Amino acid sequence: MAASSYYHDELSPPSKQDFSTELRPLPSPHQVLDGTFVSQPDHLKDSNVVPDHAAACSNPNLKASELSIRLPRKRYEGLKRWFRILKTLSQVATTLFTGIMFGIMIYVNLKYYTTRNHFKEGRTPWPNNGTKVWPSIMLLAAAGITLCTSTVILFNYCCNFKKLKQSWKLTLLLYGVHIASWIAISVVYRVEKGLHGNNDDLWGWSCSTQAKNIQELFDGVVDFRSLCGAQSGSWYVSIIEFVVRIVITLVLYIINRKQGGEQDLIDGIDGAAVTLLQQSL
User: Is the pTM of this model over 0.70?
Assistant: First the structure.
């Protein structure tokens, strides 16, 4: 009878709590990294019973996977930060260069419009057969529009630097349009200078020998030498502006190619970590 009682106790099923289990969702890689995943059920937290998956979570292989996630993610965040910095620097350069061009062209056009009716010895300081002003007005308008838009964009960047999440494809498209526009403007402005030897535009006339010959007559009214240098400088600034934008665009493209590769790597490691955790659980 005692033996029967002994075997009965030995073979009796354990209490329900000993084998108590509950459905628990699988942790995400972010929970693994942040330490927010609770591997044990509530009723086992204070007990000496350690579930198998708790030991699996302390597996060195999981720690290595965490490290392999953190390193690419750190590089990825660094690339995104450099992307934002370069976009801001690009807008700073554009604002600076277009501001210089805008100031120069205001000076040139104001000088023309305030002296075009100034007569000495039966002539004005400008060509007798009429002056072609539209190339200068074109550059003035382009510089003014670009300056306004760049200032607004730059202000937005400074106020929302951490939220600068514009699509890199859209960014490159806008940069491409900007570069193409300024190449066209710079080329047209240069071609119109002294076209066909007429020197009837503001830039061509200011740098011509005809202007030098009448400089003494119009001293104190117009300084053709300074006007020639100012307009030449404005054209060089326009060249520098779109060259700088081209360089920054290429760098942004390279960064985004690397950024895409890093994101693919992170996604692959995240997937591998989830697979490993599923196998451990």
Answer: no
